[in-house]
Amino acid sequence: MLSRVEELSARTVVFDVEPLVAYWNSGQEALDQGVARLALRAGQLPEVQLVCFATNSMRRPQAVPHSAGARVVYLASAGKPMRIAPYQDFPKPGVVVGDQIATDGLLARRLGYAFVQYRPPQGEIPAGPQLLRQLGRLIRPVAFRRPGRSQR
After folding, report:
1. How many Cα atoms sit within 13 Å of 130 on the Cβ side?
2. N or C: which end of the chain has fewer CB within 10 A?
3. Which domain holds residue 100?
4. Reported confidence tier of residue 128, pLDDT bands at 50, 70, 90
């Protein structure tokens, strides 16, 4: 996933927190370790200037880590994909990495960012995210139509 971010020469990378950084219903330690690990690794990419973690849940890490190469931001209760104001001053181009087309994918679309979809193993997805995944399947053909393709 980080190699794809690097290929896109993204200056900003927005990571969905659940399940990419820490699985749903995991504890504080998993969240803190996941945020620190991913902030460090993404911050080492040569083009990345800003690493953002965004979640629609209220969970927060105990501390937002510092990265040698990039500024790190954490947005809890982010309101994805409706609220885009917190992202407006982020450097472009950007990429959103997440599991849900209905939230992360549409956020990327609204920001003019690329979208890299992460697909967690099917058996590990709780009911709510399963429903969002089904919604995403309906949204994908409309929201992510290839340029030059006519709609029938």
Report:
1. 7
2. C
3. 2-143
4. confident
DSSP 101-121: IIIIIHHHHHHT-EEEE----
Q: What is the pLDDT of residues 53-68, one digit of tens each?
A: 999 999 999 999 887 7
Average pLDDT (126-135) is: 72
Instruction: Identify whether 131 is part of a domain.
Output: yes
11 in a structural domain = yes
Local structure of 18: helix, strand or coil: coil
In a domain, 151, yes or no: no
Distance CA 96, CA 104 (A): 7
Contact 108, 117 (CB under 8 A): no
> For residue 73, what pLDDT is reported?
96
Q: In what order do the strands lie in the sheet with 12-16?
A: 71-75, 50-54, 12-16, 94-98, 114-117
The tally of domains found in the chain comes to: 1
Domain CATH number, residue 76: 3.40.50
